[in-house]
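Exercise 7. Predict the structure of DUF4442 domain-containing protein from Uruburuella testudinis.
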Amino acid sequence: MKNWVFAKPARLRRLLNLWPPFLFTGIRITELSDDFRHCRVVLKNWPGTRNANGTQFGGSLFAMTDPIYSLMLMGLLGDKYFIWDKSAHIDFIRPGRGKVFFNCTISDDFLRAVRENTAGGGKYFPELHTLLTDSKGETVAEVNRTLYIRLKPAFRPPENDSCLS
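Solution. The predicted structure, encoded as tokens:
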């Protein structure tokens, strides 16, 4: 099933837009590039996404960033890696009073660092800094996310069990 989902980025985008945590919270992926390198997510502004103050609910702002980097990396790196969110932190900068946007891009340098840091079979914990912006381009929130990336056991180099005598 996983290979089927990641075979076409447009398929993954459509499935995520139907996924209940996105569908019922006003979150929509509007772009996912054919090479899994760029994604744009929008949190619409409607009564179901507003808090008691009439601004965007912080949980929805946080949720719009949740699976994106991990899923893009799964599409880019294939099924040889475990890729999970390890931790995340959000700083609310200003109230979101309309639509809120999240743009995510994965660079060649980032992919190179992932491959280099996991080649020996070890765990890699890259930290990603993300901005959520409003329609004027002003920052609504900053999200710092730490990923867990590691080659699956079948793809790790053999451990050196030789004894020195």
